[in-house]
Amino acid sequence: MSFRTALCDLLGIEYPIVQSGMGAIAGPELVAEVCRAGGLGILAGLNVAPDDLRTMIRRVRELTDRPFGVNLWLHRDLRPPIDPAGIPEATLRGAQEMLNRFRGRLGIPTTTSRPVRGPDLVDATVQAVLEERPPVFSSALGWLDHGLSEECHRRGIKVMAMVSSVADARTAAAEGADVIVAQGGEAGGHRSIDGKPATAEATTVGTIALLPQVVDAVRLPVVAAGGIADGRGLVAALALGASGVLLGTRFVATRESMAPELYKKRVLESESDATTVTDVLSGLWARALANRFTREYAEAGAPVLPPLVQRSAANDVYIAALKQGDAEHYPMMAGQSVGLIRDLPGAGEVVQAIIREARAVLQALPERVRQS
After folding, report:
1. Is beta strand 189-190 parallel, antiparallel or unpaired with respect to 222-225?
2. Complete DSSP assignment for 181-204
3. Paired sense of beta strands 158-163 and 179-183, if any
4. Contact 247, 19 (CB under 8 A)
5. Strands 244-247 and 222-225
6. Torsions phi, psi of 144, nearest 5?
7. pLDDT (tens digit per residue) in 314-327
8. With contact defined as beta carbons under 8 Å apart, do 16 and 234 qualify?
9. Radius of gyration of the chain (CA)
10. What's the rounded Cα separation, in Å, for the pair 176 and 179?
11. What is the set of domains in the chain, with CATH numbers?
12. Residue 369: pLDDT band by 50, 70, 90 thresholds?
């Protein structure tokens, strides 16, 4: 039973399974394992210096000769990064006071200082990707412009754009994307939108509702993302018109994932109701495993600093939590598929298991229909 789709033909992969380019999770070893198993591995390029990204791309090529991708954010608040000097004093004070509660609990110095401005990396890392010519450029959290798509196409690079609305899918298609990833509200990590809506509800259309609308709206291969972790999810996505699936949380809990052990352990232990959509971790809406940090910050109603400035301000808390093995104060992006994940296999084993499971589902489906 073949699972070859338009996505496979376009990207030169064996199976319609894509591994998400999760920041600080998806390194060369994870990417290469997915690729060797027949899927498409995507390297995380967020906040990676251009020379380091080149090294990572070349390392993937040392490990595999199969197609792979590189993911970058194109969010407007990274081009250039927001200057913390413009944050009102009251907002800064309220956020730092909240973070100081956590600092005190973890035994690290408190501070009221303004965070430093983040490095302006996007344009330089985009240029590094263009020069290194990976088979796929994966964009998220920002507008894909036509000029960038043309530059990719001139170099033989396919463009994959993640969106979370039908309107953004149409825009990405018009700007030259070759593949659209429809990110449902169940997905872990940041919502793939530009800017920041006033509420989380604006970013949480479920996969089963969003996916067929995107499929109907664009004449491109569409990949489903959100709530998918096994072969049943693959079959369901294909039935709704997708050409493939993108998985993030499932690949967090693999041997090759760069996630720390406390993060992997929490994924394996959690049910689907363990996640929350919050902006307190980074300043942007993201689905993550709820913990003491997310709950207490939200309950306090403390100010949240602007996109990614919040992450910079809280980074000392996260580093201390990691060093102390404290999962209650460490950010752990995860989707609602956590309730389906109970083992820690190799990434290649995940790809093979999903295909096995999908075949079994399809073989059993006629009998299930007759019984219904």
Report:
1. unpaired
2. EEE-TT--EE---SS--SSGGGG-
3. parallel
4. yes
5. parallel
6. -85, 120
7. 999 999 999 999 99
8. yes
9. 20
10. 9
11. 6-82+117-258 (3.20.20.70)
12. confident
